[in-house]
Amino acid sequence: MFAPGPGIKEARALDESLLDNWDYPDGHYRIILGELLDGRYAVEQQIGKGTFATVVRAVDTETGLKVAIKIACNNQTMYKAGQKEMEMVTLLNEQDPKDKKHIIRLLRNFDHKAHLCLVFENLSADLREVLKKFGRNVGITSEAIKAYAPQMFSALGLLKESEILHADLKPDNILVNEKRNWLKICDLGTASFARDAEVTPYLVSRFYRAPEVILGMEFDYAIDMWSIGCTLFELYTGRILFAGADNNQMLRVIQECRGRIPNRLLKRSTLADKHFDNDGNFFSQERDNLTGKVGLRQLNFNKTAPGKDLRSRLSGNTKGMTPEEAKKHVAFVDLLDKCLQLDPVRRINPNDAKKHPFFEDSTSRPTHEKAVKKVVGAVPRKV
């Protein structure tokens, strides 16, 4: 039987009469360290806060295990969104009874002072934190990426099999365990069944947003592969691949790197006229630093911008590479090229991605743990 420690013994449920308002004006719950939620979860710390919810780390006093609790904002819209996320994660967990597909596990749920609370397994950190600690501006090692990427593709495979779009994949929403050898995709707050997905140009966090989303095209599971491609580039280099200030500038930086968006895609787009003329010419919306007025500048992307194409931006410091390392690098460039095809139909699918030559090894393939231990020894790369 679990014996609670001193901090857990002191945790207690707080009566509603103790505060006039348990919520902030925007509906987020006021986190109080040491509060006992649902009679069993002792709040240790706040570990995240987003538009829709606050996340705390707590100790389950019944098991002694740490958990992560997502506390939805106190309004009807956010409550329903929390219910939808609960439905998505429950379905994915049921589809993966042996817990091998790298989707976060939902343990249970409860209501607390009109807030829906989702109890998830606890992991150590997200990949954004890993990058800041081990790979700021330089990226983590290719061996670590070889360990992480197949796990991401396994999760994408399960999402596709379950007919679910995650629609917000980025380093912040990919968690790793304490040993940093195992990851889980989390935060399905904006996820939807593919059949229910609504065309909107603001789905997915902007830097990880696929061009078909920006252009108002019908989209599918390929939007998640695009996001993973952007994430893998960031892990390899320590830098964001497409950092546009708005959707128009996202299209600019995407085309600088990947070339002109084909007319066949523009013809299927409902929002192309906001960025292109009838001949498919792109107009960059640029603000004058002196007047503050926005002007239009036609840009030609028949060729990628010098030094901004994918291969150049991934070139890094290849002079000191061994032939084997150079071979891995070339394979990684090819993998990202396939993840980041402008035409979603031509984008690689999760199963083929897992079989890509980048994951082949002339020697025995390293275990996740051995590979990811090399994260700390990240090699600086010039990009």
UniProtKB/TrEMBL annotation:
Protein kinase domain mapped to chain residues? 41-359
User: Which PROSITE patterns does UniProt cross-reference here?
Assistant: PROTEIN_KINASE_ATP, PROTEIN_KINASE_DOM, PROTEIN_KINASE_ST
- Keywords, in A-Z order: ATP-binding, Kinase, Nucleotide-binding, Serine/threonine-protein kinase, Transferase
Which residues are noted in the entry as ATP-binding?
A: 70
Mention one GO molecular function: protein serine/threonine kinase activity
- The answer to whether the entry has keyword Nuclease is no
> EC no.?
2.7.11.1
- Please state which protein family the record places this protein in: Belongs to the protein kinase superfamily. CMGC Ser/Thr protein kinase family.
| Name this protein carries in UniProt | non-specific serine/threonine protein kinase
